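Researcher: Here's a chain I'd like modeled. Treat it as a single chain, no partners, no ligands.
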Amino acid sequence: MEDKALIWMALAILALMLLAEIAYNLVIYVPHIVYPQPSPMPTSTISNMNTTIVFNPLPYYASLPTIVNSSALTSLKVSKIFISNGTGIPVLQNIVKILSMNASEVTPTAYFSIANLGGFYVNHKLAKNASYTIQPLPLNSNGTKPNMTQINLILQYYNFSPYNTSYPPSDNISINSLVYSIIDTYTVKVTISVSYSTSTSLASSSTSHNGNQTIVTKYYKMSVSGTVYLLANGSSIASNNFQFSYTAVSPCKLPYPGAPIFQESFSISGNVIVPPGVSKTVYSTYNVTAYQYKKEHTSGNITYICYYPTDPSFNYQPDYFNWYEYNVTVPVRIDVFNGTNPITQIGNHAYMGRDINANFSYAVWSSDPQSFVSDEIATYDTIHYGNFTIKRTWNAGYVEVIPQEYTQSSGNTINHYLSFTIQSNVVQPPSWIFNYPKDIYKSNYANNYGQLAYYYALYKFLYNLVKNNTASQYYSYINWEVDIFANEIALQMALSNSSYPQSINPYLDSLFNKSGNQAMIAMQPILIMSWGTYYHVFNGTYNVKKIDNWTYSMILIDIPGTWLNTTPYILLYNGNMHNTSYLTDPTNIEHSFVVFWWYNYNTTMYSNLPGKGQAITFYEWYPYNYNDIPIYFETLNQAFTIEYYNSTVYNYTKQP
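Model: Modeled as a single isolated chain. Structure tokens:
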């Protein structure tokens, strides 16, 4: 036993000497969160070769990519509102988006679920710390990348409480009966004026005899030409030229004695400007009538009988055209529901309170029957969520009054009246605004999220820590270095019988207690790495110690060339390209300080390993589908085939 202890001590010293040759100059990374920008993480330098860094997960919680499950927003039941699968936008951005929605877009159940969850951003208190030592293995042959030293990593964990707020405001609008009255009248009196000339000529003549008396009968024709003028309130607005003629006839041809020989009706129209400055057409009808008369005289034995037309007579009655101005009022009642100190805005008027009576009024002439569209009715409030000021607006719509013109005549008076209808363009709130969930806040979604997303935050932190301290040509190997850190953390945890069954995330309790059973510890690298690469977890027998129910895993990683042929890797194929993988078990009793990739397919260090040519499914994004959180963690999967085990230099009696 003493020889074995000396061997392990020598191996540990050699590993530390290798790491001591690397030049370390740590650049501490603060993740870029567009929405919003987090504050820098605190650090303190211990020495040139050792650095202490405090990992604050809060900024990273905000960056978890999520997709909104739109159907869940209108569900009356607690649902998975966010889907997290590595795509989408930061969860904080989606939370702010939903908190900004109005009552027609999101039910109270969904809204308060998101508010509860959103407490992670605004209500937090440091609860505990755990300290681990991590140090990189070089990515290049001369040991200069990454440019990092041994790190004393202090992990922080916070307790969270829900964000409490009100449900967004909305309006119930009641439109009462319209009221209107005539407030003004404009009358146009229409008359005519005529100017004309006449000329008379003989139209026909006939001779007859009565004994020795000769009778000469003559009929005369009258030609008339002139102009008729249409007068509106005494001013000429139109004129028509006319020309006509008529001829006297034998009295026996008249329908009755004294009947006119000419009778016609004519119309004339024109446009006049009436309030409110519009052009309207007015008209008048007039009658033209002419008669005939007889003149008779005798000269010797000749008697002359002459029939002459009379001058025309222009007859009309004045016409009166009336237009009316109306005052129209629409009374509206607005009941405001929910919100925090809501304000109802109607045009330039702001109303406080929840019971509002408002009148929409306008004046309109029947000569220009324009519809009336009221100002938009909008109720809004403002809430504060962290450094966000969120305005929640309910756009209730507007009221439209539509006038219809109709004409009513009485004798020579033509009245232009209006009737009115109301077109309601208001939006009524959905019935769910009254269905408040009673037990949403019985669960602490914010605290649950803080536990479930912790490993995501830790992965992002470690990934960017490596990225900010190496050159771009090594970016493809960042996950390899993060996996080293993840396993180094697990290597420092003590094996015990603890499984923390009462915890939402027992692995997190194990991490902060630095102790746990074999599965608790063996899963630490998976829980960290699953957010950035594919993995497969096995449960089998650890043949070195003959222990069943042993947890170990394969993690898909690009291996730096300087390490590729000196570590036991697995070659995988997914149908398009080859990939390398490690079999990881940080709880293997025979571990060294920095090397933790174990397997030997030929000597079955582990039972339950796939054979060469066998296909297995790898996963990415850990499925934390705990009921008491409105996020569904959707695991991605991809099939790989085992092509090659590069394990010839290892077996369970020969340590690396």
